[in-house]
Amino acid sequence: MIQRIQSIYLVIVALISGVLTFFVNLWSDAKGEKIYAGDDILISILFYASAILALWSIFFFKNRKNQFVLNRLNIILNLFLLGFFVYRSLNLSGEILVSEKGIGMLIPVFSIVFLVLANRAIKKDEDLVKSVDRLR
Q1: How many domains does the chain have?
Q2: pTM
């Protein structure tokens, strides 16, 4: 059942977290140099972990409850990333270290949206299976 809609959402999350973060800058420093996710080891590890969790969750299609839990863990990881970016942008704003925020700081938001959509589709499948089991 890899052809389900939640699998498409999870592939989008994996592509956003695993590939897009290294092509879109997170912020620019005061010198004008663009900072990417690959420049900071902690950020790149967290983005890779999010991508791996999304890909791993795709292959739990037979066990929808575990897939749902993995997606929730991925949402928590992306919330942590988003909180880190908000802290960094508010704490280091101005001309100290961070001069201009990049679009890459919104990547966790997009990931969270697609993970919520995937969880909604998983919940819908689980409800459908329970309703069919009730009729037997």
Answers
A1: 1
A2: 0.85
